[in-house]
Amino acid sequence: MRDGQAAQRLDALLADPVLANLMVALNPPGEETRLVGGIVRNALLGEPTDDVDLATTLLPPDILKRGKAMGWKAVPTGIEHGTITLLRAGRSFEVTTLRRDVETDGRHARVLFGRDFREDAARRDFTINALSLGFDGRLHDYFGGEADLVARMVRFIGDPDTRLREDYLRGLRFFRFSARYGEGRLDPAGMAAIARNRAGFAGLSRERIRQEVFKLLMAARVLPVLEQMDAAGLLPDLLGIESDLARFAARARLQAQHPHLPWPALARLAALLSRKGLVDPALQEALRLSNEEMRWLEQCAGAEDLITRGAAHLASWLAEDFPLAAGEAIALAAAVSAEPERILALAEAAEKHPRLHVSGRDFLAAGFTPGPVVGARLAAFRTAWIEAGAPESEAEQRAMFSWFLGGGTGR
Known about the structure:
This protein has about 400 residues and is of the alpha+beta class. The chain is about 55% helix and about 10% strand. The chain has helices spanning about 5-15, 15-25, 40-45, 60-70, 115-120, 145-150, 160-165, 170-180, 190-195, 205-215, 220-230, 235-240, 245-255, 265-270, 275-280, 280-285, 290-310, 315-320, 325-335, 340-350, 360-365, 370-385, 395-405, and strands spanning about 35, 55, 75-80, 85-90, 90-95, 100-105, 110-115, 130-135, 140. The protein has a 7-stranded mixed beta sheet with strand order 3-4-5-2-1-8-9. It has a two-stranded antiparallel sheet with strand order 6-7. Strand 3 (about 75-80) and strand 4 (about 85-90) form a beta hairpin. Helix 1 crosses helix 3, helix 8 (about 170-180) packs parallel to helix 10 and helix 19 (about 325-335) packs antiparallel against helix 20.
């Protein structure tokens, strides 16, 4: 089913001298070690990956012993679950003894070590992640993962309900992997199982939900996946807060037209949230956002509010008062505007806003008493300066300051 180039990419994996050295050490007579998971999947697709995982019949002490004997640094990163990390030549490889589950609680599993590659593969989440490549170059595909890669379909292995009840995080991973590797309609059986088991999301840690949500938002096909999630009523279960998919779709269209605009994960979250959800106090807990991230979102909301109320002349003010998120607020406002190009022009103005040379010290020098009145007068002057076109030269600003003090504005 694979083409010649895919076969060549698989051969190239095993021809890598560093990996070949490791495979020699981990394939003694009577034992077997294979490449598994993402490294095999992405090689078939012709896509890069930094993670190299191996599954082996060797027990953890044997992995440690053989790795060290071949000059590798061995770190018992998850030895209780059979995982040893081997490092050499600036590279790392995770080697895990074959396992089988004996008990699960919806997030964690108690496992026993085994020697059956098929049984180990059956523990994985999706068919496209259960592929393995032997040292002899043979591709092992127990559940039709290669055909699903060709079809660009993400499917659970076996019974979707069983896979979800073993680990409810797989429901979020289903959407993230579909947005990364899938095309078209999401697997109906998977969607139906997630809908039936949606209550299980509540038991997941907020940190893990945050990780999956942010990865999903950065995936190439996030919009069609979010649309299908929304149609199934699953977005509230994912975020736990109010969202606005039409707003996200508008921002995605703007990004397609202006790909130079920055659009990192936090900005994508701001686009997905409704205007109300953007300032919802529950948001921080729902996605374990840091205080700095919350400040960014609050600034984005404040700046967007000014722009959408028609304050087009406030470009320099946006950059002063909302330095963290002025650019994204402009992009969001443009996305939902009938005049996006006019509003986008504010972004350049916000980045190159003129400096205000007048400060509180000037008011003190003019005889004002230190205190809140100085701040209030400075804010009033800045408003007048912006409304006058925000002249850049210090001489013009000083002349305006003199006019401001003597123009009946009072102290």
